[in-house]
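can u pls check wat happens w/ manganese (II) ion
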Amino acid sequence: MKTSSKKTRASTQIVNVNGVEIGGDKFTVIAGPCSIEGPEQFQTTAEGVKSSGAVLLRGGIWKLRTSATTFQGLGSDSFSFIREVCKKTGLGLVSEVTDARQIEELHDVVHMYQVGSRNMHNYALLKELGKTNKPILLKRGFAALIDEWIKAAEYITNGGNNQVILCERGIRTFETATRNTLDLNAVAYAKRMTSLPVIVDPSHAVGISELVPDLALAAAAAGADGIIVEVHPNPAEALSDGQQALTLQEFSLLMKKLDRVLNALDRGLQRPPEMSL
Ligand code: PEP
Ligand code: MN
């Protein structure tokens, strides 16, 4: 480890997403469904996670699924009701941009672009995102070295957009009992070696809803700046990733536990922004 580039928490750059400052002492919780499935599902989830303390929403509009025959997302048909839900709740949205052609389309819908694990190596997409003025959530490729992930972020920052948040979402290892293996080393390492905020996606890391809260708490203890977690009002009916989605009740319980862990560490949960939309 090069000591010359050692960073401390105090030097973490703050990334502002719809009034929510990520990277300071407070712990940011982003929550919502894997896929946005319709107005009712999205609104119920958004209101539910907000009432438990989430400060940003997540939700896929275009999905990169392993199988071409499974649900691929609602696409642009969903934009108008998504805007309404964001306006009603006052919460900003994080959603994946799966193709550079979607950057412009999504510009007035999302508050932070997400680059998914499968696209971390898509340097053409990263370069285009470097020209935008919106924050970027850069997920780690499921087979990427930490160093490759950090270097991928430079494709965005070198273009002039330094509003980048790193997201550890589990890597593929020899283990098959869980969906991926959460690499908390990566969180500690990236926090030390870069000035970017680092968050954890415990949902895709473990892939089993019962285990998601344990990993979320571990992420807080390991010094992550926040989590992005999948929540669905009825996981059994979810069109994608239902097996790893927390119910609204499970999410509420997790938030209470997170609050206690963070208090023990002299940190706390990020409070909702002023209604800024
Ligand atoms: C997602 O966030 O829904 C997703 C597809 O994540 P990842 O790119 O980490 O697999
Ligand atoms: Mn998902």
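The CA atoms of residues 96 and 114 lie 4 Å apart.
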